[in-house]
Amino acid sequence: MGIKSDFRGEEGVKKFLEDKRKKYEKMDDKEKKEFDKEALENPYLDSRIYHIAEDKEIKKVLVGIDIEPAELLMAKEIGDIDLIIAHHPFGKGLAYLAEVMDLQIDVLNFYGVPINIAEGLMKERISEVARGVNSANHQRTVDAAKILKINLINSHTPTDNLSAKFLKNLIEEKKPERISDLIDILMEIPEYKEAAKIGAGPKIFVGDKENRCGRIALTEITGGTEGSPKLYEKMANAGIGTVIGMHISEEHKKQADESHINVVIAGHISSDSLGMNLFLDELEKKGIEIIPCSGLTRVSRNQK
Ligand SMILES: [Fe+2]
Fold it and tell me: 245: helix, coil or strand?
């Protein structure tokens, strides 16, 4: 599902994997030994299987945005949980978070930013992210899963792709003229409506509700985490008027402001929930019972 919704297209993802294989084949034996072979088949290295305690039929899953040892203890308390599915990565998935950010280069290029500029600015940011996640206590949750004998996986970029594609389709269909129209469209999505009730609904971070949207780009919903702040100027030059994102740092906000790009922040955990829900609907169709936790606003789009 993640590949089908990928902005690079299925062909683009295939090419990405082929390039990885070509690189691998050129490596010497020592490099090959150290190389993470999952990279040859999984285009989303921030999404993985972390622990298989028991390979059994999955009937009931506990699903959350951030899974920590507390949620694992909750699963034990509930009892018959066959698998825990997290959204945000930990362990090896977190260590490899920067690996999925290549996607953003192609997405930016799709929206008209020259490939050399997108590549140059993103490369800088990718290495920054790789250094940033280096200090984390990666294995904490994975260790707990091993001790408590719980099956544990996560899905980050595949489900963020679902969220991005869903929003892109909706916006292309509704064609909002002004920022206020865009906010109205987002507010019709149940996950954002729920978030708004607790004060975390869609918000204008840069621009004004009276502003016209211009070309709307979904460059910041998927692809690991925020790209380079230097990109806004380039995006403005490429003809982008409004960016819809999940979250934005102060530095990014400042740069967007200077480039006169409107920024609408749809919401972080709500956008994560949207993508997870589209995936969970498919599990539900297979008869799997879903227990949401840790920030996941579960909305089913299946016919009841
Ligand atoms: Fe997230």
Answer: strand
